[in-house]
Amino acid sequence: MIRLLCVAGARPNFMKMAPLVRALRSDPDFLPLLIHTGQHYDEQMSGRFFDELGLPAPARNLAVGSGSHARQTAEIMTRFEPVVLEEKPRAVLVAGDVNSTLACALVASKLQVPVVHVEAGLRSFDRGMPEEINRIVTDAISDLLLVSEETGLANLRNEGVPEERVCFVGNLMIDSLFFHLERARQRDILSRLGVEGERYGLLTLHRPANVDEPARLMEMLGALEMISRELPLLFPAHPRTRARLDALAWSAPGVRLLEPLGYLDFLCLMSRSAAVLTDSGGIQEETTALGIPCLTLRENTERPITIDQGTNRLAGTSRQSILETWREASARPKTGRVPPLWDGHAAERCHAALRRFYDLETG
Ligand code: UD1
């Protein structure tokens, strides 16, 4: 059996790892072991995602918790190294662009264990984003790079990554979305919130560049407050954001702050919303797959296919650009289409790529 360590550490990792672990567990040639770094640790940010996504209990939880980038990354590395030495995996699988991704890829690579990167090749070309550094470094030391959208192929080619290491598999996050959508739509979150039958928008914000600087945050909130006069907004706030909002004692009549939601409740609210405003990466993809208009509250995106083919619009972060984009989106809603290989079968293609990687027959 080929032992694989599958790393999940922060909220957006869980929906990518779940379908992949499920596919690998169905194959007797593989033994996938889930490693939780504990980068996210609250029940709201981590625990309940395991139940909802059907993830197995982690074989190990490194319980690293929060810290500065250096401290968190170093702590993950320190705690992950002995696990790799004990478990002797044939590969370490990492997903996305969070600190856990980079830290575990570095450890594996230095121990000469192959690194498989899920969601490889995405680039915002903005090195001010910690995630961009994590993506670049992880891709540079990965042995198998599994790509979610076609721009990833071009980016890796431009960086000189040999073609034979790269495989276009599609989007694992969309596997989870399609797998759980029907169940999510049955949830009673709308009636619990008392918004059944009402038009609403869904808002999320958590990027340090957007929320850590009060002046920037207030500028964005000013625009969002204006929008909420036309479309009431539901705002499940990340703990980082909630702390900043509390410090500013901010509130607006049209914006309803909520605790972070579980996967199914969030999916339910998203799928029934009139529009989504967000600075998240994954939500840009999910709204494109669902055909829901999305305004991305950032200056750039590493997921340009959601703009070229999907329902996403880059709204920037100034009051003026957000309001202009909002007006344009209201006047001319984008319909968009679902990008290639965002079909709910990415995990099967990842699985096949792994079988080829180990020279196993593929069906
Ligand atoms: C991380 C990822 C980001 C991803 C986001 C999703 C990196 C560099 N960033 O950012 O790419 O989009 O996760 O949420 O890895 N906190 C809690 N409970 C938790 C986790 C965090 O209260 O379970 C609070 C802590 O105060 C912590 C802060 O949130 O200091 C930030 O957490 P951290 O893991 O450093 O990064 P995120 O902002 O969540």
Structure notes:
Helices cover 48% and strands 15% of the residues. By secondary structure, it is α/β, with parallel strands linked by helices. Helix 2 (43-53) links the parallel strand 2 (30-36) and strand 3 (60-61). It starts with a strand and ends in a 6-residue tail after the last helix. The structure holds uridine-diphosphate-N-acetylglucosamine. The site of uridine-diphosphate-N-acetylglucosamine has 19 residues, from helix 1, helix 2, helix 5 and helix 11.
Characteristic terms for this protein:
363 residues; alpha/beta; 7-stranded parallel sheet; 6-stranded parallel sheet; 16 helices; globular
Which hetero compounds are present in the coordinates?
A: uridine-diphosphate-N-acetylglucosamine
SS-based class: alpha/beta
**Count of discrete alpha- or pi-helical segments spanning 4 or more residues:** 16
Radius of gyration: 20 Å
Instruction: Give, in spatial order, the strands making up the sheet with the most strands.
Output: 3-2-1-4-5-6-7
The helical percent reads: 40-55%
Molecular shape: globular
Mean pLDDT score: 97
- Oligomeric state of the chains? single chain
Outline the biggest β-sheet.
7 strands, parallel
Secondary structure topology:
Elements: E1 2-8, H1 11-25, E2 30-36, H2 43-53, E3 60-61, H3 69-87, E4 91-95, H4 99-110, E5 115-120, H5 130-140, E6 144-147, H6 150-158, E7 166-168, H7 172-185, H8 189-193, E8 201-204, H9 208-211, H10 214-230, E9 233-236, H11 239-248, E10 255-258, H12 263-271, E11 275-278, H13 282-290, E12 294-296, H14 305-308, E13 312-314, H15 319-331, H16 346-357
Parallel strand pairs: 1-2, 1-4, 2-3, 4-5, 5-6, 6-7, 8-9, 8-11, 9-10, 11-12, 12-13
Helix pairs in contact: 1-2, 1-7, 1-16, 3-4, 4-5, 7-12, 10-15
The structure holds uridine-diphosphate-N-acetylglucosamine.
